[in-house]
Every structure is written in C-alpha cells, then in structure tokens.
Amino acid sequence: LDDPLAVSGDAKLSAVIHGGDDSNVTFNPDQSMRLRFNNQDIGMYQWDGSVDYTVDEIVPAASLQTNSSVDLTVALNQLPGITSYWVSPDWVELTYPALADAENDRMFIEGVVAGGGNIVTTGFSTSSVSVYDVRDPIAPKLLSGVGAQLDGSSYSIYWTETEAQPAYFLTTETAILAPIAIEVDQPSGWRSPTNDFDYIAIIGTERNATGTTSLGAELGNAVQPLLDHRSAEGLLVAKVNLQDVYDEFSNGFVDPDAIRAFLTYAYNNWQRQPRYVLLVGDGHYAFRNEVSTALHNTLPPYLVHVDPWIGEVPADSRFVSVDGEDDYLPEMAIGRIPANSAADVTAVVNKTLAYEDAVATPDGDWNLRSVYVADNYSDPAGDFHALSDNVRLNWLPSLYTGQQVYYRMDPDHDTGPEMRTAIKNAFNQGAVFLQWFGHGSTVRWGSVSMYNILDPANLTPTGQTPLTMHNACWTGYFAVLSNNYQALGETLVSVPNKGSVADYSPSGLHIGAALLTLDQGMHKAMFKDRIPRAGDVVKASKDYFFANSLAYHDLIDSMIFFGDPALELRLPTADFSDSTMEVSETTADPGDTLNYTVTLTNTSVFTAPNVTLTADYPQNLVTVVDAGGAVDNGDTLTWTLSEVRTADADSAVKTFSLAVNSGLAPGLYNVTVPGQITSDISSPADLQVNTEVNAAPLMVNSTLLAQRAWIPPGMPVTVTAMLLNYGTAPSLGTQVTLTLPSELGEPTWMTASTGSTPVYDAGARQVLWSGDILIGGDETVSFSSIVSPTLT
Length: 792
Prior knowledge:
alpha+beta; Lipoxygenase-1; Rossmann fold; 6-stranded mixed β-sheet; 34% strand
C-alpha cells in the first residue's frame, strides 16, 4: 500500500466474486468463500447459484500495513454434503486513509472530508502543479487559488475546499501521460437507413501500443475473392471495417457490444434485413490485450454467462440476436473465419471456393456419405453409440450412406490410435457431413484421445471436405488463451486444402440429451428440408432446438459456426432440366385425340428417389381417354416413380391421351397442359405444351353482286361475292365456290381482297377461293366473264 495511515478510523474492503458450478441444484446455498485481511478473519460468505456476490466490509485502519494481503479461500468443509464447487474472483478493492504524497509527480485523491479546511499534498518535484476537480470525470475543472511551498527537497501543494465529496487529480506538465499514437478517423456511414445489403463481412482490426497494425487490411484483402464470389451469385455484399463499427457504435472503444449494436441497427433500419454475417478474425476474452498471447484478437467474442457448469462462454450468435438485449435466438446466419493471419483467411477462402466448384470438385459418392463418429457405448455421460444411432437411423434419408466409426464397436476400433486412423480415413474419403458424439475438450475428441488438434494437418488434400458437427464439450471454445493454440473446431476449418469446409462446435459444456435434440434439428434442416446454405442450416437447427427443448438453452448461445454462413452445401442433386413434354397435334378440332409423351431425363450422377410427375389438364376442354398408368384426380394426372437414373430410358417415359370435347361452345381454345417433375433431391422441373382448338361455326354473311342488272350478249360482266365475319371468333379456312352458268364463258380475270388468289375449275365451271376472315373482317372475291354472243 502507498503511505497508509495506520491510525484511528476505518478502511473499506470490497470484493465481487462469481459463483461457479451451478449443478448442485439440491443445495442452497451452494457457493461459499472465506475472506481474510492481513491474517485477520473478516467473514465467511455463502450464496446460491452461478451469480455475482458482493462483499463490502469495514476494517480498522490500524490493521493496514505497507505489505498487506487479502486472502479468499474456498473449501469443501464450508459446504457439508457438496462434493465440488468453485468460485471466480472478479475484483478486490481496498479504500484506505493514506498520506497525500505524490508518486512520479501525479496523484489522484478521493474521499477527502470537506468543509472549509485546507488540503495539503506533498512529494512534487516542482511548484508548477495543476489541480483538477474530477468529481465529474467527463467534465474536469482546473482549480485556481492553488499554492506551493518548498519543504526540503520537494514541494507541497495546498488549497482550500468548501464543497462536499471532492475528488482531485494533480499532475505536473511533464508527468501528463501522452497518447502513443493518434490516428485519423476514416468516416463511414453504416448507421444510415439508406444501406441496402444482405451479406455483411466484418473485417477484424488489431490495435497495439503503437496504434493500428496492418493485420486488418491483410485480412480484408485475403477475404476479397470470397466476397467477389458471393457478389457474383447475386448477394449484395457489405465489407465493413471493424474500427468503423467501433467509431460509430462505441465511440471508438474496443467493445463487442458495438458489433451487436451495429447489426441490430442494420437489421431494423436498412433497406433490407441482412441474411448473412461473416466475422473475419480470431478473438479471445482478453480483448484489451491484458494477457500476453501469440493469438491475435482482431474480432473479440461476445461473452455471456449462460453455461451452468463453467459460466461465461463465447456466443457469436448473440451478435445477430437483435430482438432486445436478452434475445438469444439468432435472426441472421453468422459464421466466423478464426484467422490470425492472411494465410488463415486464404486457407478458408480457397477451401470454400474449391468445395463449391463442381468442376474442381466433381460430384460423386462423397456427396452421399455421412460419417458418424462416436465415443464409448458404456459411459457415465451416456451411451454415445445409441445417441449417434438415433440420428443416423431415424433422421438420415435412405439415399445417404451412414458410415459408422464407433469406439469399441469392433476389435478394429478398440484404442485411441485405431480410432484416429479410422477418422483420418473417413476424412480422406470425403463426405458431405461428419459428426462426433462424445466427450471433448478444446484440443481433442474422446474419452481417450481419438482425434486432436495435431491430426488435421496429416490429412490428404481434397476438395471433398465435410461440414463437421461436434456433439461434445469445449471443442469450439475459440477464446482459449493457454498454450497459444486454437480449439479443434478452429483447426479443422483453418487447415489448408483438407479438414472441414465449415465446422459447428461448442464453446461450453453440454449433456447428451440436449445435443441430441440439436443434432436432430441439424439433420432435419440439412438432409430432409435440404436448406441449401450452411449458415441457414445452423440457424434452423437452433430454431428447432428452441421449439423442442424446455431446458439447456445455453446450447443455442454456445454452439459456434466456423466458416462462411453463405456456404452452398454440396448435397446430392438430381437435374431434370433436360426433360421434355410433346403433344401429337398443335392445332385440333373438337373430337380429336391428343397424344402426349413425357420423357424424364436425369442428367446428374445421382439416382433421383421418389420422383413425381404431374400433368394438369383443362377438364372443361378435354377428357382423359388413356391415363397411361397415372392416378387421375379430375384435373391432374400423377405418376410416382421410386427412382429415376440417367440410364432408365424405358421407365422414364410416360404417355397419356386426351380427347377434345366435341360439345364446345363456339370459339377458339388453348388446351394448355403444364407438367412438373419433382423428387427428393431436385428442384422442380416445369414442362408445358399447348394445342389450339377451333370450335367456331360458320358465321359469315355473303352477298353476290353484278355490276349491272342487264348485260347484252357478247358483253363482259363482273361478279363480286362479299363476305362479312360477324362471329366471335376468326373464320379459319373459309371457302367460297362460285359456279358459272352455261351462258358465261371462262373468267377473263379473278381477284380477292386478301388471302390467296381465286382459281378456276374448268371441268366444274367453278371459281374457288379459301382463306381466313378475322372477327369483323370482310372479304371480296371477284371475277369477270363474257356473256355468250349467241344468247337471244
């Protein structure tokens, strides 16, 4: 202690301690601590639950010593019947009377008794001392009327105080601490409702004692190819510098709450609600660099006290839980690239792009493989084989192969090394999904070490990297600082060209039953609902858990997703886009039969299961005469096929026949037949054909005229037929026949106002014309002939 006054009076000893393990639910209290000061017993304090507990005690000033000690002790004998517990000290504070003697020409004073007395301080090297009233820390006042006096080798500073509860800061000019670095703020506009983005990439930043380092810019450059790829897909991408978030939402201070405040604002105020958030950068709990570590803290975690066993855990999904301060159900999909260098980002970006590129990573058996790795079947924490089998047997569609790698399932999987080899082989073979169910720590899977942070580097390079899920404890605790290593989940994602394309792992401790519910939600979203992007699958799994679990909701907070939330999963997908539908006639009359042929063509390498073909027909225009084996419900024909493979030409052709109704009202009709092909693993393929049916009656008025009423023999006569369509449909294929009497010779000329030119049939002595007459249209057909000169 600095210059304690061990005289009469009191000192105040305060402390805040947090209760640890909250699992002793049958005991109240279940937390205890004894406090001692300078070997004097102050008291024992007990409370219930994993919560803060505050101690405020008065100790006699006579007990103060220059070398004082505060002891906090926990012991099982303080809580009889409890087998284990622990507590975490947050802070301890001792407020004591002391000499007002400066240290290094600076001094902070509080708690001076005011009331018109003189205040005297000592120990300054000069008489030029500034005294500030700091009762209001953000509005300090420089005092006037301050005096100085030389006392031996140092100066005393004095003044008179008249107000209550003063607080002062004294310093010489040379003792004022200057900032090591001052940087120009680059203005940004993320707090603006005009922003319109659905994908936000927050690029971490690093500050040290000399200012901002280049690491943030390096991370931003490394992630750019991924952002370009997402933009090319049609997503509106916002690239956000984390320092800009701090500047706009926490006055420049490093504060994870600023990230949540920014995303809350964006979700509630931007032109559209963002869907995906990518965090670029690693982080740990000492985000003000209080602890020395080789791990960078470019993007700090959001820490919440929710874990019933260990308390505070990283919870990235809280950044996107924006429906109030206590909300823990994410509204957006979020993922983190846990990078400590640009090379780490590049590894994740390259792996993501290679995974999504069907040319670089072709479809194959790996898309159909889901791997289930499990711990012991006989374990105090549960039967991990049974937990794994629950999802493998009940939630994985039969299309997929559920590969088992279970500890002690047979003599080949009896040891940690044997399991490690089997897990390595499973990764190397490629899979669309790989999960662990069992014990875990930050560095490994297994009650014995079956897979650890050193193993991913030994895998074979491949683009067939799975999405991994850890139904375990700790393996996603990325805020770990000890030994300068990253957690297993981080390692699987960060290793280049192998490992996992994305990872879903826990930052806390969990029980098997809760993890099973989350795992079921994961399988439903990924395999049954076939949600295409990984971040949406993860979000859906948490939504499912929330809806189907009444307890252990800390799981929603502490399951961390590493990777790009917009990752497009390589689920096996059939392709029926080359399928065709044909009809025998494109024009028809009432009573005609229309024959249809549908060819289902699957151009993918995957057999499409549970294929359905539907053909809708207008029952008011046509009648089914041959359903071709389909089920007819009155306006739709439906065929169900167990599967369609590319080579199944015979079984993938369906035919049916429809007859045009003969009693149609006059008019022109379109018999449109749309078809659709669906399956468990394909997008709908839409087909359509059309036939035009003319049901219009003869509704044409005709008039026959000559140019004069009397023609002398040997003179020409012109005859004109006038036709008018007064119907409600075009008169298609209208025919005109004009038969000449024997008194008229062969026509000398013929003409028509539209359509084809009339022709003359000499044998039948007929002028013939055919053509279409539109609704309201008219047509004239004319010819000229000579009256026989012998006519009398």
